[in-house]
Amino acid sequence: MKIWLIQLARHYWKLVNPVAFIARNFISNVARIGVRANNCLDVGAGTVPYAAHLGRFLGVRDYVAMDVAPTDRCTLVGDGCALPFRDASFELVVSFDVVQHVANSRAMTDEVVRVLKPGGHYLFTFPFLYAECDFHDYHRWTMEGMSDELVRAGLEIVMEQRRGGLFFAATLGVNWFIQHMIPGARRSWRTERTMLGLLRAAFVMFLTVPTLALGWVGLLLDKLLPVRGCYMGGAVLARKSVHHVGMEPVL
Prior knowledge:
The protein is an alpha/beta fold. The protein is built from seven helices and seven strands. It has a domain at 17-164 and 232-240: Vaccinia Virus protein VP39 (Rossmann fold, 3-Layer(aba) Sandwich), CATH 3.40.50. Helix 2 (18-32) packs parallel to helix 3. It is globular, with a radius of gyration of 18 Å. It starts with a helix and ends in an 11-residue tail after the last strand. The relative contact order is 0.16.
């Protein structure tokens, strides 16, 4: 019963969550410029919500789901700052809203660059105007700040996209507040769910239906009334040069 409820919740979140929609849409846009990859490492994969989309649009066949803690969907437990792979192992590395949870984010970026093949791509998302997460939350970046960090690590920016704008960021803030005003939240999504916790999650889902709906409206309003400099976060596609010879040292 509990497993069935967890699966139902995952499918619900995948369908109604506008943040997940933006990530899937970015993957589709990356496919339109001709990016393909036979193998892919997903750092901080969690419950692998984008694995099917990566396979369908980018042609990924060999998919490695890695996280710092075991989940029912991960194939490997490992540290993003010390990836257990040889140099130039992957054509694609992805990471969705993970880098903010890494204290030394530059170390993670350097490891991604190391395991990427020359000409390989790094596709990931990150937050800017978003409330602090429940589990180890260290960083926020502007688009320019993240681009600078990637270039310093030896990557070339291929494509970047802001995630929403003022209205979207505001609705996600309200959604966060509703989620946290109900006591009993887990310290981390990796913590095992109890039946009481599942009932709480179902109640929170019910309460947040209006704010999720407003999130979609917010995305539309941000298209119609763009406000420069105010957005929820970003999505980036970066490329390791075929002539890559090293990375700028961290000072």
